[in-house]
């Protein structure tokens, strides 16, 4: 499949210097991934200027460069240069053209918000599948086509990868695609040129201030998914002030909005909730009608996610009855309040959860406490090279548990002890915690602390089966490590 350079830029202002009829074989934004007859996008990044990799891309066979300023390469007279105002936007525009706008061929549901995106996409997938639709999923745990999960580096892929994924989903016959849309993706226009049927907002609480700097900027990045760039039907949780602001904007623009929330003015809200150990029963009011939903997920925050997914499915045209029926057979989401299964009957319960923000940690601890009336110990850390200002707030939040073990998450290129110091800075004066930088030992210590009936919550890494230390990615899965430590503590494994 090839298209000419001029075809790919149709609908976008640009200056083509060279051969507009040049056939383009593929799209690349990393020079080491460029191949023969590719178009290479020179992106001015936050770390380096992609224009400096133009020669490398040419050496690997690229024949078209997309640039924000002409590069004038020696010995490359047969190279075509396309000068644009914004290489990232050009890349997204070209990628959608290159793959023939695949998102127009299915109903794309885009979900944004600080927490709850993965869970909500899984809920939408399950409901759509139960209704006989074929649903693709794009997000943090990976990308799913026809039920097969593929790992990915990003929550929301860069535009050429995203459009290629859409094309594969279209070709696999997907009717619906449920996609997590990160604030980074919106700010870096990875989704530009995509056609959404529904866009949904879960919540906005602190995260990623290393990138967005202020809450206002973080919100405005999320709000782009509800702007004229992405016309769609909307689902908005109005439990928080940011959601209410988004609702105001969408209503003003004349969008078709379904509101959700514990707020009784929301179109979808709970009238009564029963939290049980392995399931939740919710009497929902859905646009003036009562319907009971029972589903095998736990925790108050999952009531919010269920309502958001319910709204998305209604916006896709499914009936409330079909949605309620589907929820009854929902399966657990990997690494989200997942109970650790060990090959030993343990008198304590251990859960793994992906809470890596202050709000998520607060809510995950509260959910475990609501499930278990004895003591709770939380094991957690914070990621390196990510928002450092959330660390002391997470430290403070962890004190809501009876006991906390502060450990390492993915330290990345930061000193693990310096990250822990930041966390402990928020735990001043408390004596119900201790520090163990080694995550396995921290998990073992929490299990040793627990008495029969107590619960241990291991937060922060959820489904991740690795730990990033420096530039190395080591094998580490909280669920496996916790199972091993339970087996060691309760008799099946020999002590080292
Ligand atoms: C903050 C962020 O998202 N940064 C992304 C951004 O980086 P950048 O603008 O700084 O780019 P850069 O590294 O300066 O490089 C500039 C250009 O030179 C190219 N280059 C660079 C080096 C090289 O050797 N060769 C080369 O060609 C790069 O491909 C790029 O096109 O553009 C790069 C590709 O163009 C992305 O790889 C990079 O993602 C980084 C790795 C990242 O970690 N992003 C995370 C934070 C992220 O996107 N997370 C969200 C989820 C967040 C959530 O939890 O909600 C996600 O959607 O995944
Ligand atoms: N609606 C919610 N409100 C607050 N916290 C939530 C909510 N849903 C889930 N959480 C918490 O956030 C964690 C991550 O959930 P989930 O993966 O669904 O969110 P996410 O938005 O996809 O996060 P990320 O993009 O960082 O992967 C969960 O493990 C849980 O602790
Ligand atoms: N997508 C999130 C995930 C964080 C998960 C946590 N385990 C960490 O590594 O900080 C991020 O990149 O900020």
TrEMBL record:
State the organism named in the record. Adlercreutzia mucosicola
Q: Which SUPFAM superfamilies match?
A: MurD-like peptide ligases, catalytic domain (SSF53623), MurD-like peptide ligases, peptide-binding domain (SSF53244), MurE/MurF N-terminal domain (SSF63418)
| PANTHER family from the UniProt entry | MUR LIGASE FAMILY MEMBER, UDP-N-ACETYLMURAMOYL-L-ALANYL-D-GLUTAMATE--2,6-DIAMINOPIMELATE LIGASE MURE HOMOLOG, CHLOROPLASTIC
Which GO annotations describe the biological process of this protein? cell division; cell wall organization; peptidoglycan biosynthetic process; regulation of cell shape
Q: Which residues form the Mur ligase central domain?
A: 111-313
The protein's required cofactors: Mg(2+)
Q: Which UniProt keywords apply?
A: ATP-binding, Cell cycle, Cell division, Cell shape, Cell wall biogenesis/degradation, Cytoplasm, Ligase, Magnesium, Nucleotide-binding, Peptidoglycan synthesis
Q: What is its EC number?
A: 6.3.2.13
Q: Where is the Mur ligase C-terminal domain?
A: 335-462
Which family is this sequence assigned to?
Belongs to the MurCDEF family. MurE subfamily.
Which residues are listed for UDP-N-acetyl-alpha-D-muramoyl-L-alanyl-D-glutamate binding in this entry? 31, 155-156, 182, 190
The Gene Ontology terms for molecular function here are: ATP binding; magnesium ion binding; UDP-N-acetylmuramoylalanyl-D-glutamate-2,6-diaminopimelate ligase activity
Q: Where in the cell is it found?
A: Cytoplasm
**UniProt protein name:** UDP-N-acetylmuramoyl-L-alanyl-D-glutamate--2,6-diaminopimelate ligase
């Amino acid at each position: 499949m090839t298209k000419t350079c001029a075809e790919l830029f149709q609908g976008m202002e640009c200056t083509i210097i060279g051969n507009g009829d040049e056939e383009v074989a593929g799209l690349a934004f990393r020079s080491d991934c460029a191949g023969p007859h590719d178009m290479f996008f020179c992106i001015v990044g936050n770390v380096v200027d992609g224009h400096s990799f133009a020669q490398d891309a040419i050496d690997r066979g690229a024949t078209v460069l997309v640039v924000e300023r002409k590069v004038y390469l020696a010995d490359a007279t047969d190279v075509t240069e396309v000068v644009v105002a914004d290489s990232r936007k050009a890349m997204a525009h070209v990628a959608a053209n290159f793959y023939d706008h695949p998102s127009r061929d299915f109903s794309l549901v885009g979900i944004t918000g600080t927490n709850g995106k993965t869970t909500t996409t899984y809920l939408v997938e399950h409901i759509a599948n139960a209704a006989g639709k074929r649903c693709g999923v794009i997000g943090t745990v990976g990308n799913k086509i026809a039920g097969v999960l593929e790992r990915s580096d990003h929550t929301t892929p860069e535009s050429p990868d995203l459009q290629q994924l859409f094309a594969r989903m279209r070709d696999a016959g997907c009717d619906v695609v449920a996609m997590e849309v990160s604030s980074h993706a919106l700010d870096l226009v990875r989704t530009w040129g995509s056609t959404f049927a529904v866009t949904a907002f879960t919540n906005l609480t602190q995260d990623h201030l290393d990138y967005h700097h202020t809450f206002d900027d973080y919100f405005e990045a999320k709000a782009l998914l509800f702007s004229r760039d992405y016309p769609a039907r909307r689902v908005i949780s109005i439990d928080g002030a940011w959601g209410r602001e988004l609702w105001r904007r969408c209503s003003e623009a004349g969008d078709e909005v379904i509101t959700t929330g514990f707020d009784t003015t929301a179109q979808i809200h709970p009238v009564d909730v029963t939290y049980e150990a392995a399931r939740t029963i919710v009497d929902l009011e859905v646009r003036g009608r009562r319907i009971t939903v029972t589903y095998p997920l736990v925790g108050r925050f999952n009531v919010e996610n269920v309502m958001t997914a319910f709204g998305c499915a209604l916006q896709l045209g499914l009936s409330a009855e079909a949605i309620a029926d589907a929820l009854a057979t929902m399966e657990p989401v990997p690494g989200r309040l997942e109970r650790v299964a060990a090959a030993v009957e343990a008198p304590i319960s251990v859960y793994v959860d992906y809470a890596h923000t202050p709000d998520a940690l607060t809510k995950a601890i509260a959910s475990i406490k609501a499930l278990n009336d004895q003591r709770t110990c939380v094991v957690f850390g914070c990621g390196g090279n990510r928002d450092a200002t959330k660390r002391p707030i997470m430290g403070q939040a962890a004190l809501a548990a009876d006991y906390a073990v502060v450990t390492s998450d993915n330290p990345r290129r930061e000193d693990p002890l310096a990250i822990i110091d930041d966390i402990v800075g928020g735990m001043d004066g408390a004596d119900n915690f201790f520090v163990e930088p080694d995550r396995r030992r921290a998990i073992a210590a929490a299990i040793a602390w627990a008495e029969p009936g107590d619960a241990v919550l291991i937060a922060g890494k959820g489904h991740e089966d690795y730990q990033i230390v420096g530039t190395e990615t080591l094998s580490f899965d909280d669920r496996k490590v916790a199972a091993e430590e339970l087996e060691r503590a309760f008799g099946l494994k020999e002590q080292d």
